[in-house]
């Protein structure tokens, strides 16, 4: 699905975004028949609350959508709820109560609310469409929405239809749309290419679902941006087998790959002058004879040895080789995104994208952009005293320190060992909405991508 705004030539239905504080004045300004209808329906302008108002013939003459309290920061994309709750028609935000930032959020929220995942079951398309508000960059918002919808589609697709091979196909399709180049290193060729950790994690899978490193490049000039996304298309936990309840959502363990691909689509669609590289180690962490074991000590591309204390901490292993490869070209900025640790969810919950940054200026740019574009992020610390926790003695690094403390931080410290000396940020995301919310239906979701896109001009000169 390609989200887009309605044709501005279509007949338009006025849509009023109303807060509880402004409701009385808005009702008072309505014609009598409309005023009577609103009062009879008990509309209270709660966040995402929608009301279609008919004319004397019964046709929709106007509509209202609640924004929630003016000063509340509890809700995002409330106006966008109209895309799924209002009758078919072309709507235009009216009334002049929203500033530019609010209009941009409302417009994006409408497109995101229009998303429907209907690959496996018939679901009606959203028929309430929005005309792009005056004064916003409609093309940019459509590009952002399209990137987010790509991310959602990839995460929502179950592992039987989104294994490493299908993820490669999705990358190739994206590349073809944007004249990008793709190289893929498969199976045992990973060993020849000195990518041993990617090979080891994925070698237990069936040959048709074998490990690979997907390498997309786009852009001939400009600063170098490298995005690295965890592409674990299904995670059984390996020999440290997950219990059934923990395995239920593991189709989303490639959410990091899905999110960097959504961000890459935004960048390429907008034509941002960058030399973009996307690295995705795509594997399935399976159980069979060749599976790697607890206690194994593995080599890595960078030459650091890694002791395996838990085969369920496989994401940092495949990212390690990809980061080491990416760092060799000394990009101006490298970013990794991964559904990496449960510890991050305990720390900040499912709604916030925690991130780590090696430079304060990078962190400040991401944090400010996240607030501006309603993509919540939170900086986490590279706490140096915890470095000893990932140094087991028998090998250079430990992939899963015992004790259960600071799990997200120790994972980030592990990855930093492979990311080189340049500017680097790592996102430990969840990639899933547990319940339906405005602009964010239950299911796969991108986290941090819009913040990164908005922060790019401050992080690297484009």
From TrEMBL:
PROSITE patterns assigned to the protein according to its UniProt record, in alphabetical order: CYTOSOL_AP
Record domain Cytosol aminopeptidase: where: 310-317
Gene Ontology cellular-component annotations: cytoplasm
A GO molecular-function annotation: manganese ion binding
Domain of life: Bacteria
InterPro entries (alphabetical): Leucine_aapep/pepB, Macro_dom-like, Peptidase_M17_C, Peptidase_M17_N_1
Pfam families per UniProt: Peptidase_M17, Peptidase_M17_N_1
An example Gene Ontology biological process: proteolysis
Alphabetically ordered keywords of this record: Aminopeptidase, Hydrolase, Manganese, Protease
Coiled-coil parts of chain: none
Family statement: Belongs to the peptidase M17 family.
PANTHER family for the chain: LEUCINE AMINOPEPTIDASE-RELATED, PEPTIDASE B
UniProt name for this protein: Leucyl aminopeptidase
Originating organism: Wenxinia saemankumensis
